[in-house]
Amino acid sequence: MNSTLVNATPLPNIPWEERPETSDRVVWRYSQNPVIPRDLLPNSNSIFNSAVVPFEDAFAGVFRCDDRSRHMDLYRGFSEDGIDWELDPEPLEWIAQDPEVKGVYGYDPRVLWLEDRYYVTWCNGYNGWPTIGVGYTEDFETFHQLENAFLPYNRNGILFPRKIKGKYAMLSRPSDRGHTPFGDIFYSESPDLEHWGVHRYVMGPDLNWCYTKVGGGAVPIETSEGWLLIYHGVLQSCNGFVYSMGSALLDLEEPWKVAYRARPYLLSPKTMYECVGDVPNVVFPCAALVDGETGRMAIYYGAADTVTALAFAYVDEVVDFTKETAV
Ligand code: BMA
Is residue 170 a contact partner of residue 220, using CB atoms and an 8 Å limit? Predict the structure, then answer.
């Protein structure tokens, strides 16, 4: 029985596979990875860095697909079990309250249930510059786009699943136009999901496995020990960037205050599908399903910028690990 989760609903059909006996890690990979192959769609080059949520007794998601002209866009998908996915071959059509905010590309979506609808945040190519797009859907049929949250350049916009002190809350990672050799996570709040301010510093790239840049990963998970943040961090080797997955616990009421941050990574590129692909050595988490009954957690992550993979954990074990190995 789970002990630390707060406000979590049961999700008995969460995809799940027990930790293999050969593993002593708090996060372990699904044995049948990847769950989404690069060529699932007729025109896809790669499908990765994607986000899923429980939807009508099953699952829905927003997926990053780069097509064979290497155009990056968002696609919707549905699954009965969270493992076998059917994706709509047409990219999302955003209905924008102001068409000027529509991006010329979109990538790295996050999705969550917040109050009364599903919100999507993503890297929106506003005028060709990366910034945080915000939109919502009630049914995964019609998608409405709101104002961009921030000025370019920014990526990895992650909404919190409830208001904090009466305000909507978002993590983001200011960046540059290119592949951003720097990056710290910031916190911002908004009364209306349109005007964002009160920006606060959360954390930076200061561990060995992520001394180049960090960015939020999955939507924060509320626990009695703080918001559990699964994030990505990057080191620069002589052969390029290496993207790994880490964990931190943020203060519940002032989430820019880091209560604990695990010194080791949770998962780092190791398998063939993480080490070989369009961009080698990338593990990039974008979503985590949680079962409020058992504390089981299913983490969806992009692997090598090519496919989508799944890893499992128990929330309590990740919380303990984060505290026990804290910096
Ligand atoms: C980042 C983003 C991610 C990508 C990662 C590794 O800058 O573009 O979408 O997974 O690089 O290439």
Answer: no
Identify the residue whose C-alpha is closest to ligand 1 atom 1.
179
Element (H, E) at 135: strand 129-137
Tokens of 128: 């060709």
Tell which residue, 231, 170, 249, has the closest CA to residue 5.
249
Read out DSSP for 297-313? EEEEEEETTTEEEEEEE
Tell me what pLDDT residue 2 has: 59
Check residue 315 and report its DSSP letter: H
Distance CA 195, CA 237 (A): 38
Distance 257 CA to ligand 1 centre (A): 26
Q: Nearest residue CA, atom 7 of ligand 1?
A: 179
pTM above 0.90, yes or no: yes
Query: Residue 1: pLDDT above 70?
Result: no
* Site to substitute for ligand 1 among 46, 48, 49, 65, most atoms within 8 A of C-beta: 49
